[in-house]
Design brief:
- The structure is a single chain.
- The protein has helices at residues 22-43, 56-60, 66-69, 77-98, 100-121, 131-144, 164-181, 189-205, 213-230, 233-251, 258-276, and strands spanning 149-154, 158-163.
- By secondary structure, it is mainly alpha-helical.
- It has two domains: 22-205, Rhomboid-like (Rhomboid-like fold); 213-276, no CATH class.
- Strands 1-2 form a two-stranded antiparallel sheet.
- Helix 6 (131-144) runs antiparallel to helix 7 (164-181).
């Protein structure tokens, strides 16, 4: 079944009192670390933050905490606010759908996996940021509600409207371009690609997303076979055999497809069975 051209979210975004959502957990954690990073950087005392960045040399020396700590630092204000906005924009939509536990696991797994990929693909560059998890959330969001249309306006002058699938595609292409050109390695573009794939797979494993073409073909074939089995011999001849016989008389038996030949075989079996039963 194809998705409607435009979707609107019908899921409640108000969290239960006294129960923090996964989005808010990550939001306030990022705010805290982002503020700390900004204050230390402006004061010239930001060197201790280097202990939290992820790079292959220090990780190989046993500093494994970097795989967790690197995600709460950012390469700059643009990187920080972009991650924060996308997390709130997409995370508040999908968390009520997939549940808080699934949401938290997706973010943590995506950032750990994306960080590992970025570390090995970064040619020694230190990686920071929550980008892999944000990419996973956005990819899952685009898989679950690809046609959901959202928009905003700049000073109420330039209104922009876009669908979830286009935003996820733009992020994926941006990360792919960074990987190919070797730019912005500190934000982990390879990790963003990894997170995107993981978010897409995660959402599909939970049962979301449109079926692939081969899944649709298999479903249609199964439905047709079940319908044929339910037919009696008279209905089968009238609805399935007669059109094939007309085609043979018009174009010859060589024009039959494999599926049509199979229908003739099924028809022969049905008629034999019907004759043996004395019908």
């Amino acid at each position: 079944m194809s998705s409607p051209r435009r979707q609107t979210s019908s899921y409640q975004r108000i969290w239960s009192p006294g129960r923090a959502s996964g989005v808010l957990v990550f939001f306030w954690t990022m705010i805290f670390w982002g503020t700390t990073q900004a204050v230390l950087s402006w004061s010239g005392a930001g060197q201790p933050l280097d202990l939290l960045k992820l790079d292959l040399r220090h990780f190989s020396e046993g500093e494994y905490w970097r795989l967790l700590s690197y995600q709460f630092l950012h390469a700059g204000p643009v990187h920080f606010f972009a991650n924060l906005l996308v997390l709130c924009y997409a995370g508040r939509e999908i968390e009520p759908i997939v549940g808080r536990v699934n949401f938290l696991w997706l973010c943590l797994l995506a950032n750990a996996t994306g960080g590992a990929v970025s570390m090995f693909a970064g040619s020694g560059a230190a990686v920071v940021g929550f980008s892999a998890a944000v990419a996973a959330v956005l990819a899952a969001y685009a898989t679950i509600m690809p046609e959901l249309e959202t928009g905003f306006s700049f000073l109420h002058i330039f209104p922009l409207r876009f669908r979830a699938k286009y935003l996820a595609a733009a992020m994926f292409l941006f990360a792919a371009g960074c990987v190919m050109t070797g730019t912005l390695r500190e934000i982990g573009p390879a990790g963003i690609l990894t997170g995107s794939v993981l978010g897409w797979v995660w959402a599909r494993r939970l049962g979301f997303g449109n079926p692939f073409w081969f899944q649709r073909r298999r479903f249609e074939r199964t439905q047709r076979e079940q319908r044929i089995r339910r037919m009696n011999s008279d209905d089968f001849v009238r609805m399935e055999i007669d059109p094939i016989l007309e085609k043979i008389s018009r174009d010859g038996i060589a024009s039959l497809t494999r599926a049509e030949r199979k229908v003739l075989d099924i028809g022969r079996d049905k008629l034999c069975s019907h004759a043996q039963n004395g019908g």
